[in-house]
Prior knowledge:
This protein is an alpha+beta fold. Helix content is 51%, strand content 15%. The protein is globular, with a radius of gyration of 22 Å.
Amino acid sequence: MSDAEQASGGGFTLDASDDVREMRDWVHDFAKNVMRPAAAEWDEREETPWPILEEASKIGLYSLDFFGGQWFEPTGLGTPVAFEEIFWGDAGIGLALTGSCLAAVAVSGQGTPEQVGEWLPQMFGSPGDVKLGAFCSSEPDAGSDVGAIRTRAVYSQATAEWVLNGTKSWATNGGIADVHVVVASVDPAFGSRGQASFIVPPVTPGLSQGQKFRKHGVRASHTAEVVLDDVRVPGHCLVGGKERLDERLARLAAGQAGGEQAAMKTFEASRPSVAAMAVGVARASFECARDYAIERVQFGKPIGQNQAIAFMLADMQASVDAARLLTWRAAWMARHGRKFTRAEGSMSKLVAGETAVRVSEQAIQILGGNGYTREYPVERMHRDAKIFTIFEGTSEIQRMIIGRAVTGLDVR
């Protein structure tokens, strides 16, 4: 079977294409030589690493062309391979580099061609003019329960504008982004099915940053509240357009299926990518522990020669590889239009996120007292890892989704 047939999904292979391998090595070099040396500093500063973003932009890594190219890579492995390498470098800086992608996915997955062409470039900018995007879904009282979103969007016939009011929470790049994509309720009677996404252009009056959160991990990534006070956006800023929204609401009013909920569709598409981030953190933790176990001598021999350590490393390596395989499967399925009938996207995120937490904790144990200090990176990796069991759907939510898929029952 030809390489083209294999790449299109016609045959089975676990070999990445030449293009993906070349990209992987290029991203790995940036992660190793630029991100890792700066990781501890930006973690301590708890600030967006603008110089790193600018350097990434100059080489084309932080760009719409790069992320879009990996998203549409024929095998589906472009994005997970790239994200694994980026987060192998550092999760905090990595999230600063990839945080705009969720907003881009929300628009590209649901928006019109005109919206994609106009707004996605403004989420990344260009060298010397780096820009950011932010996806704003969660609220103080609506995290896992997206149906509880209170932010309202009301259409003004007189001005052909949407008026948004509410407060968003835990938004990556929230308040500092150039383009915000906001999930709001247009018809509360339909719960989460009555929601839509809206593009808020740069410097729109009424949008402001609320509280900036000081976090346990991924501290180089900006996370904040976004306050919307009579924010007026043009009618064409409704993602997907008003005609499509009106048709969906009419179906709901008639008791028919209304299609997928706006925020959930975005999260479903992004789960394998988030899983790949967690795999990167897990792999970095394992490699640090492995190298330490080989070099650290106690009682006259490397500690890795002790079964207690070697067996732990064996389990860590197996867990990382298993998480990666689940992630690649989900990414391949998504790229080739295969439905997640058994919640394969949720499986990848669940296993990868919990693997990152467990493996980074085991890495600290292997390093002992050194692992508990900031002189070694594993304590930071452990702090960073925890977010992957929380954001974009907690582990408990992923288990509920998987449980529903495998039983066919309304698990709650």
